[in-house]
Amino acid sequence: MKLTVYKKMMLGFGIIILIMIISSTYVLFELKSVSGSAKYIITENVRTQELARQLQAIIQDENGYLEKYLISNDDSYFSLFLETGKQVDQNLKLLDEQQSLGDHPLIHGMIKTHNALFKAMQAKRNAADSPDKSQEQAGQQNMILLLDSLDVLINKNQTFIQNEIGRIESITARSVRVALLLIVGTLIAAIAAAFIITQTITRPIGDLIKGTKQIARGNFDNIHVSSNDEISLLADAVNDMSVKINDTNIMRTQTMQQISHELKTPLQAVQSAHDVLKASRAVRPDKLRMLEIINNSIDKMAHFSHQYLDLAKIESGAMQYTMELLDLLKIVELIVEEARLVANSKEIGIELNAMPIPKIMMDGEKVSMVINNLISNAIKYTPEYGKIVVSVGPGELGVQVQVQDSGIGISQDEIQNVFVRFYQASNVKGARTHGSGVGLAIVKAYSEGHGGRVHVESNLDQGSLFRVEFPIVNSRIPENQKTLDL
C-alpha cells in the first residue's frame, strides 16, 4: 500500500486521537461510577441516617410519655404516647421504603417490636382495674429492644457510609493513577508517532538535500530516497533534472575545450607571422611599436585561452594536481617581488607581512597562479598612490594568504558573484584596465582543489580583502574539482 505524506500524517494523528478517546472514555466511566456512588450515599444512606436520628428522638419522646403514664396512669400521657407512636410508625415505613434490601429485616423487626409495644400498652390500659405487671415489663422490654435496634440501624448505616466514602476515595485514587498513566502513555504514543512520521518524512528529505548538494558540487549520481510517496516523485524529478544538467555540462565542457584548442591554431599562426616580421629587415623601425602591441595582444589571448582550458578541465574533472611539500612563503615572496615592478609603474606600494608557517602539500604552479591572480587584481583596481598589503601566516585551516588593497572595492550586492566565471562588478568599467572575469573563478577552483577555501570582504571605495586558506595536511585531493560557481 502506497502511503502519501498526507496519509502518513492523517494516520499518525488518527492513532493519537483514538488513544485520547479511549483514555478519556475510561476516565469518564470511572468518574460516572464515582458520581453514582456519591449520589447513592447522598440520596439513600444520608437520608436514611437523618430519618433514623429523627426517629430516635421521637421514640425517646414516646418512651418518656410511656414512663409518665406508667407512673401516673394519666390518660393524657397515654394519648401523647399514642400520637408519638403513630409518628414512629410513619417514620418506620419511610425507613422501610428508603433503606436498601439488606436493612429491611431489621426495620421489619422494629415495626413488629413497636406493634408489640402498642398491644402490650393497650392490654395494660384495658386491664386498669387488675393491672398485669408482666404486660408493663413486656412493654418496657419492647421499648428497649426498639431503641437498641434503632442504634444498630444508625451504626450500620454509618459504617456503610464510611465504607462507601472509602470506596469512592479508592476509585478516585485509582482513576487518577490510571488517568496519569493514560496521559503519559498518550504522550509517549504521540511522541513515538510524531517521531516515526517525522523520520519517514525528514529522512528522505535529508537524502534529497544531500543529493542536491552533491549535484551542486558536480556529482550527478542518482538520488535514492527511502520512501514511496511524493518525496520519491520529487527525487525522480531531481534525478531527471540532474541528468539534463550533466548532459548540458558535458556539452558545455566539450565546447569550451574545443574553443580553447581552436584558438591556439590561429594564435600560433599570428605569433609565427609576428616573429617573421620582427626578424625581417623590411619592417621600418617606426612600425616595431605596432609589432610589440600585436605581441602583447597575442600573449593576453594565449593566457586567456590557457585559463579557459583550465576551467574546462576543472568542470570535466580532468584537472591534475602535482602535490609536493613546498614553502608557501617563498612562493609568495617571489610573486610579490615580480608584482612590485608593475605596481611601481602605477605608484602603488606593496607591503609583505609574514609570520612563520610550516610547509604544506600543494601544487606549486597552481598555488602560484592563485596568489598571482589575487595580487594582479589588487594592482589592476587600485588607483595611483594606493597601497597593497600581502600577509602570510597561520589560519583556521592551517595557513593563509591575505591580499588587502585600497582600491575601488565591491558593493555588498555583488560580492557574492565575484567568483563566478566571466562576472565583472559594475564599478570596474571606470577602472583604467579590467580583466576577463576568469581569474577569480580560477582562484576559487584551485583553492578548493587543495582542500582550502577563499573569502572576500569589501565595500565600495574602501578597498577589498581576499583571504585564501590551505590545510597543512592534505593527504588527498578531492576526486571532483568542480565548484558550484564555475
Describe this structure as you would to a colleague.
The chain is of the alpha+beta class and 486 residues long. The chain has nine helices and seven strands; from the N terminus they run ααααααβαββαββαββ. The strands form two sheets. Strands 2-4-5-7-6 form a five-stranded mixed beta sheet, with helices on one face. The chain has a two-stranded antiparallel ribbon with strand order 1-3. Helix 2 packs antiparallel against helix 3, helix 3 runs antiparallel to helix 4 and helix 8 runs antiparallel to helix 9. It starts with a helix and ends in a 15-residue tail after the last strand. 24% of the residues are buried.
